Amino acid sequence: MSTQTASKPAPMPATPVRTRKPIDWWRWAGRGILAFLLIFTALPMAWMVITSLKTQLAALQYPPQWWPEEVTFENYLRLLSPNNAIGHEFLQYFWNSLYVSILSTVLGVVVAVPAAYAFSRFRFPGRQALFFSVLLRNMFPAVVFLMPLFLMMKWLGLVNTHGSLILTYLTFGLPLSIWLLKGFYDNIPPQLEQAARIDGATRFQAFFHIVMPLSSPGIIATAIYAFIMAWNEYVYALTFLNSKEMLTLPVGLQRFFAEYATDWPGLMAASFIMSVPVVVLFLVLQKYFVRALTEGAVKS
Amino acid sequence: MAEVVLNEVVKSYGNVYAVNHVSLTVADGEFVALVGPSGCGKTTTLSLVAGLNEITGGEIHIGGRLVNDLDPKDRDIAMVFQNYALYPNKSVFKNLAFPLQMRKLSKAEIERKVMSAAKVLDIVHLLERKPRELSGGQQQRVALGRALVRDPRVFLMDEPLSNLDAKLRVQMRTELKRFHQDLQATVIYVTHDQLEAVTMADKMAVMNGGFLQQYDSPKNVFGNPANMFVASFVGSPAMSLIPLEAVTHGSDVALRSPEGWEMPLSPQNARKALGSTTSKVVLGARHSTVRLHQAETPGAVPGVVYTVEPTGDITFVQVFLGDAVVIVSLDPSFVVEPDQKVWIEFDQERIHLFDGATEKALPAA
Questions:
Q1: Is the dihedral of CA A117, A118, A123, A125 positive or negative?
Q2: Interchain proximity B84–A209, CB inside 8 Å
Q3: How distant is the Cα of B86 from the closest Cα of chain A, in angstroms?
Q4: Which tens digits make up the pLDDT trace of B242-277?
Q5: CA B79, CA B53: separation in Å to the nearest integer?
Q6: Under DSSP, is residue A207 helix (H, G, I), strand (E, B) or coil?
Q7: Are residues B219 and B260 in the same domain?
Q8: How many domains does chain A have?
């Protein structure tokens, strides 16, 4: 009797004690670091936005106003209205930047997509050497090429044109674009193209109808990368351009800084506007980034 | 449908021959299986027929037309891939419609053809889905549907069943066979699974090391293997091969083992054995033709039981005759123990003799 009755209630209290999870310190440490990084990156941006909404007087106050007592959009209006001198100048820079960035992005994709596909699919003499020479550029800091490129641009008669910047950004952006896209094409099974070719497509049609849609996340990623690089670039834009109406935003902002040194809210508003296209681009396209890159292409 | 002729087809990469002077004819409406171990050149041969690989030498004709330099799209073939190669970003309907769109058919006609293929394969309810939302068996059907949808002259299939689980594989095997019978289609089917080849094909082409070893009906390949490779590759479990030496005693011929026992040969087998280029002769026997005795029997040779493998309705016993292994199938009620001494009796009518030097089957003289 004793063995039977004693064994029955025993498991009941034992189970809840065991199910309590131990605290996972690694996980919490990771969260802590993430939170710190978030604050580290978001705080300056928040401060930028807050300052851009202040009047000039409020911006210079000490101790600072953590939240503007008098919210004003005047700084933005001034920058965005083409009728006043500052707005006119700013919009010109903005347009220049947009033009250079979009063109170098589009051209970059147009060149990188077939180049990466060729590196991924075809075996040709010098393939390996060529592929690594593509990366060679990235082994040196950009400044090293400043003078040689300037002399080349001068020789080509491209100094003080947007063409010089587009050409430069292309040469800098392409290596990584090609490298990244090649990775995408390597992961698309060649049987898909073979199937398409048997189904009646030419090699190009197979690429266009089957492979390219599958690599669209990669194309978008490289496009965003190229765009941001061109949008933010400063040193080359400063060197190659010299007339005011040709300047791009980073250089133009720097000029603002020199001319209107005390107008912090205006500068912050300009900075904020400059970040808008990049943020919008990301928000619109991020779903392509995240979209399952490894969609069930084939059964493995 | 069309006849496919391979004439001295060669594919080489530098000095490495993936396909070495292969010639075979697939008659109109015939189901031919290319079998062999991995790396034997069977898949390369298929891709040469498809035009996905450039041919190094020889000729390929499809329906009387030389296709050596034709693009895959102009060969009027369809192919089912091992991993199905469904277009992942297209719905099932669009997957099936793609070959028709590429041939610029009208919308109405595409719709009609896709629907009729979908009905045949029972995938109408899946047409709106994406490939990743399908099970392996369903993906298989869609891949087949994409091949079926435009009545090509030849169907090429590259291990289409090898990604399915065992049960589904048997089921699809039956369906494929039925599909071939109904359509009277010319099919070239690559597989490493000799059972698939034996059960489905009208003819099987056994390949090894880029060479065509034997091209015949499954019955003949199984019954009269051309060489030791084919003998050991076709049939499961494999044919037992025992290297022996032919000796003559007056007019009688016997096979002698390194251990010293001798097995007298019937007159017919004796003539075969004497045709060997050297005295080395390899005896081949399928498990079902070998008898096992617990006690010494005249004509039987001694061996030792190595393993006993019951499979349910048949028990396989591996017996060592010296260094060679002989597999015997027994009724499960027959009791033998590992390491037990037994006697093996070969059926003179049903043994195979191979030339020990050339590894080729010895012809009846």
A1: negative
A2: no
A3: 7
A4: 999 999 988 889 999 998 899 999 999 999 998 889
A5: 14
A6: helix
A7: no
A8: 1
